[in-house]
Design goal:
Layout lengths: L1 H5 L1 H12 L10 H23 L5 H8 L7 H11 L2 H12 L1 H17 L13 H11 L2 H8 L6 H20 L2
Protein name: DUF2059 domain-containing protein
Organism: Chitinibacter bivalviorum
Keywords: Signal
Length: 177
């Protein structure tokens, strides 16, 4: 059971990276929100499937489905701050705040459905040639290179942090049932 669930953050990040893709005590940036939402959705869809297959209880799946959007914030803050400079994090946030970045985030989120064998709730966004150029230009920046080419969010150290967080969430859901 845990192997599929443990791989979900990587699956979520891979989906984000196919399209494209910091918090302090009082501010959560768009990067953290975007990546966390995608990781959480992947975990939720996988646990729903595991419950349907009888591999986990419905109570645990319901608990995971009820997790709040901030469930992965601390992990993404830690990974982003260790892998990207402040200016690179700002560049990622600016990109994700743009029309193209928002489309990429939506594309990555929706890809979680198809990568977990689910129907898309809506069509994938389409990109104009100008939007594709903007995406390519972001990919040429230092932040874009690290995020899209080097895939630092998929490194073994990042995967270890994501897996630890998933395990903690599953333990909490198991204990609460």
């Amino acid at each position: 059971m845990n192997r599929l669930v443990l791989a979900l953050p990587l699956l979520a990040l891979t989906a984000m990276m196919d399209c494209s893709a910091i918090a302090n005590e009082s501010t959560v940036t768009i990067s953290i929100q975007t990546f966390s939402q995608t990781a959480l959705l992947g975990m939720q869809l996988a646990t729903q499937d595991r419950a349907k297959d009888g591999k986990i209880s419905n109570a645990v799946a319901n608990c995971v489905s009820a997790l709040k959007p901030d469930s992965f914030y601390s992990v993404f803050e830690q990974v982003l701050t260790s892998e990207f400079s402040t200016s690179e994090r700002n560049a990622i946030d600016m990109f994700l705040s743009s029309v193209v970045g928002e489309k990429c985030a939506k594309h990555g989120l929706l890809q979680i459905y198809t990568s977990t064998g689910h129907q898309l709730p809506e069509p994938l966004p389409k990109f104009s040639s100008d939007e594709m150029n903007e995406l390519v230009n972001f990919g040429k920046t230092t932040a874009g290179q690290k995020l899209l080419v080097n895939k630092v969010l998929q490194s073994s150290s990042a995967a270890g942090l994501f897996n630890t967080r998933i395990n903690a969430l599953l333990v909490a859901c198991n204990e609460g049932t």
